[in-house]
Design a protein that fits this description.
heterodimer; A: mainly alpha; ABC transporter involved in vitamin B12 uptake, BtuC; 2 domains; two-stranded antiparallel sheet; 2% strand; B: alpha/beta; Rossmann fold; six-stranded mixed beta sheet; 11 helices; 19% strand
């Protein structure tokens, strides 16, 4: 018998304390590697499907990884997707914390880009260090304005924000379509698009030839700020309490209206910032249908990260990798597009499902049932 | 905790090794590399399918590496274009005219890569914009519609409401309709998308309810449903872009406004292979055999005889350069006709 050992009863079996420690260690390892395993399983199943259509899966995945990691120029393409997706996912996460299910992030992104475009084109003769923040601020105002409409409808009239934000998407997207086809379209072109924004409003790449610009750094900074605001500040605490239970918030003396308005401003602003960052980063002009559905992808990205801003950085990066990678797989290896989408979906489903197992193992750890 | 770190470290190493091994698993063939980027799925409508057919025919006939990507959205397009360039494409073909500008901007940054835009509106030293006129075949379709209508009201359904739709497609169609029938009224509607079949159906029904007895549909996926609605309502239809559309309703489709997209794409690849592909704007119309009007042999007797003569007369004037889109717009503007 080992010194200081105790016999524990559990399920009819007697366990050694050292056995409990070993099992806890095992669960910790499983929790840590579960997403990797889920990804590998999804890739394996995807490989089977690729093989079934007569394509070498090794080659297909080779193209996928090569497009991401072979050189910095290709790698940087991921950030074109990453930056707006991160902003949009942060927007959704903040909304959820405040009990706002914001399905209108896509529309807020478009409207933010529209207002930012106006600031970028019609405000001239400013130095870049003033013009760029001004354009970003314009984007924030655009996003807040659109989400604010849904917010007012909810506060004043009890309109479900899922419906109102969803419908506002169409308003914003088609408004942009109209604006670039008529009022904003330069007279010397037949293509629906706005003029280019002033040079002082454009972000230049930090590394020539890549898509790495200040927008990337800004998005990461904002993610950290949002984390600290939501999880480490009293205002964020109030938002979370209101989101968890408005009755508890009321009895705790929290100003619910003020907290709700904060959520609208932050969440709407983040979505608008996504649009503005796309404008000043890569596009430099407003065109129809410029977004790849980041507002809707944000929902999955945020949920997978459990609405934690710091985890959202990783999930947004993962989804950006997948989006760029499957495109390359389709283009270079000839994997049918629909199959690429199946593989993309499978990766997301497997990783999301792994969360279930992770939470089970975590429960075992916390509950001491190991 | 130490075990965790070691385990995770091994896992990361395995992952990285797999990644690196997979990139070495194949060798790059040293052939001319052509990449074509489609805005929509290749099966979504005849335009994309015909472009794809031309591409595959070029793959069979020439010793080139042909790659393609479908459903490249507007948002993704610049990134995919850049990735294709980084991956060593010698020629990138884009089959969407609204992507002319982003292609030109990218071409400026990468002068060593050749680009081609099907139906592009501008060219450059390393950008060959090759396509049709966007108005000649539509003009002839208008002429057929004007000749055949008994209610003096014809309908034109276009996919997207854009400056090109107004200034080329619609202007050409209205002019053609008035050429054979000066009293004709033209109802033009816009689906707003290349894919919205339901909206296309509703628009055709509403046009027919407004008195239209012949519908010309140039609206992507909605073309087929437009023909089916016309068949059900007993009115005539004209469609685009290829003759096989007659098979949808042989007793309804009186003519097809043809556009040989496959020849455009095949020609681009052929020129590239032979070293003849030049930058610039190349517009090909009826004279070059890229656009035309094709009458359904089963229904040609339904077209008034003088109508066919007038259509052919207009066709000749277009070939001879007597009728141009600039003159059409000028004339319609003088007569206060909105297009």
């Amino acid at each position: 018998m080992l010194p200081y050992s105790r016999y524990l009863k559990g399920g009819g079996r007697k366990l050694m304390l050292s056995d409990v420690d070993n099992k806890k260690q095992g669960y910790k390892i499983l929790i840590a590697v579960m997403p990797f395993v889920a990804l590998l399983v999804a890739l394996f199943l995807g490989g089977v499907l690729i093989f079934s259509v007569g394509i070498n899966p090794w080659k297909a995945y080779g193209y996928m990884f090569r497009s991401l990691f072979s050189n910095i120029f290709l790698f940087s393409e991921t950030f074109v997707h990453f930056v707006p997706l991160l902003f949009c996912s942060l927007s959704f996460a903040v909304g959820v914390k405040g009990q706002f299910i914001n399905i209108g992030i896509e529309g807020q992104l478009y409207f933010g880009a529209l207002i930012a475009t106006l600031a970028g084109i019609y405000i001239q003769c400013l130095p870049a260090f003033i013009h760029i923040p001004l354009v970003l601020l314009a984007g924030v105002i655009g996003g807040v304005f659109l989400f604010g409409i849904a917010g007012i409808l909810k506060i004043k009239f009890g309109v479900d924000e899922i419906i109102s934000t969803l419908m506002l998407n169409y308003l914003a997207i088609f408004l942009v379509d109209f604006m670039v086809t008529y009022p904003l379209k330069p007279p010397n072109t037949y293509i629906p698009q706005s003029e280019k924004i002033a040079e002082s409003a454009r972000l230049l790449p930090l590394i020539a030839g890549t898509q790495i610009n200040l927008g990337l750094i800004l998005s990461l900074l904002v993610a950290v700020i949002i984390y600290y605001y939501v999880y480490r500040s009293p205002y964020g605490y109030q938002i979370r309490v209101v989101g968890a239970s408005s009755n508890v918030a009321k009895y705790a003396g929290i100003d619910i209206l003020k907290s709700t308005i904060s959520v609208i401003i932050i969440a709407g602003g983040l979505a608008g910032l996504a649009g503005a960052s796309m404008l000043i980063g890569a596009q430099h002009k407003l065109v129809p249908a410029f977004s790849s559905g980041y507002g809707f992808q944000a929902i999955c990205t945020s949920v997978l990260a459990k609405n934690n801003p710091l985890w959202i950085i990783l999930t947004a990066l993962l989804f950006s990798f997948i989006q760029v990678g499957v495109g390359s797989m389709h283009r270079n290896a000839g994997v049918p597009l629909s199959l690429c989408w199946v593989i993309q979906g499978m990766i997301m489903v497997m990783i999301t499902s792994s969360e279930y197992l992770t939470s089970k193992f975590s429960a075992n750890l916390v509950g001491g049932r190991a | 905790m130490k075990t965790n770190k070691v385990f995770l470290g091994i896992l990361v190493l395995v992952f990285v090794a797999l990644m690196m091994a997979s990139t070495l698993a194949f060798t790059e063939p040293l052939k001319l590399k052509v990449v074509m980027l489609f805005a929509n799925p290749i099966t979504s409508e005849a335009w994309n399918l015909n472009c794809f057919k031309g591409l595959m025919r070029a793959k069979e006939d020439f010793d080139v590496d042909i790659l393609y990507q479908e459903s490249v959205s507007d948002g993704e397009f610049p990134g995919v274009l850049r990735s294709s360039i980084m991956e060593g494409a010698d020629l990138i073909i884009v089959n969407e005219l609204y992507r002319t500008e982003p292609t030109l901007e990218m071409a400026e940054q990468y002068p060593d890569t050749m680009f081609a835009v099907c139906y592009g509106t501008k060219g450059a030293d390393n950008v060959a914009s090759v396509g049709g006129t966007n108005w000649e075949a539509n003009c002839l379709s208008g002429a057929v519609a004007g000749a055949m209508t008994e209610t003096n009201t014809v309908g034109f359904m276009i996919a997207t409401d854009s400056p090109i739709a107004h200034n080329y497609l619609n202007a050409g169609f209205i002019y053609g309709a008035r050429w054979t029938n000066p009293e004709v009224k033209v109802l033009t509607t816009y689906v707003g998308s290349w894919d919205d079949i339901l909206k296309g159906k509703e628009l055709v029904i509403s046009m027919i309810d407004a008195g239209v007895d012949i519908v010309y549909s140039q609206s992507g996926k909605a073309n087929q449903i437009a023909v089916q609605v016309c068949e059900g309502k007993g009115v005539w239809a004209i469609v685009t872009p290829s003759n096989d559309m007659i098979d949808v309703a042989p007793k309804t489709v009186v003519a097809v406004s043809t556009l040989v997209a496959d020849e455009i794409v095949y020609g681009i690849v052929e020129d590239m292979v032979k070293g003849n592909l030049q930058g610039g704007l190349v517009v090909k119309g009826i004279k070059e055999g890229v656009e035309d009007i094709y009458f359904n042999p089963l229904l040609i007797d339904k077209v008034p005889e003088n109508g066919i003569e007038r259509v052919m007369e207009l066709r000749q004037k277009i070939i001879d350069g007597e009728v141009t889109i600039e003159k059409i717009r000028e004339e319609l503007t003088k007569e206060n006709i909105i297009f």
